[in-house]
Specification:
With 219 residues, the chain is α/β, with parallel strands linked by helices. The protein contains seven helices and eight strands. It comes from Ligilactobacillus agilis.
Length: 219
Amino acid sequence: MKNINLCPSMMCADFTNLKEEISNLEKAGVDLLHMDIMDGNFVPNFALGLEDYLSIHKLTKLPLDAHLMIEKPIRYVELFAKAGANLIYIHPEADDFPLRTLEKIKELGCKAGIAINPETSIESVSELLPYIDAILIMTVIPGFSGQKFIESMDKKIKSICSIREESGYNFEIGIDGNVSQQRIKRYSVVGVNNYILGTSAIFGKGLQYSKVISDLRKL
């Protein structure tokens, strides 16, 4: 498959064996490490923080993103840019002036992206699409791993792919939430580029990461 990026979600990794986890993911040939930053306010959970981010950055040369599931993300984009983020996602609902924040991210030398919740309409973020480098479509309620894929997101995924093609935008499209082999195969055909891999695809299965990634590349 061309233009497909496989991005393990590090909130699902074994933090008691982090160095080996990252080494095995590198050897498997993943494209990017996905970093979920949760503040316990925007979503009802805590996940990776700045110190976790810095630790992982020291252990790898792989690119890292930062999915900021936090209120008023403009307060923190500079911290994560300096911590090594290549791509920073914000949730427009969490920011008073999301366009300003996206511009700030680019000024810091990072790619700027938005993440949209299942309840977020495409229409509500349409004005931001010319200014982004990536969009991440949440196919589960954000905040927890292991949830079921929300089937109604199928229409949203296909609509965003169509909008990108029809409007001539060049942002990447990703999905996050219960991303299985079957869904990667299905959505790569319609134009989805980035796949966040959690417990449905790679972690906690007792399989070698190199085999999992190799099998996904063959889809």
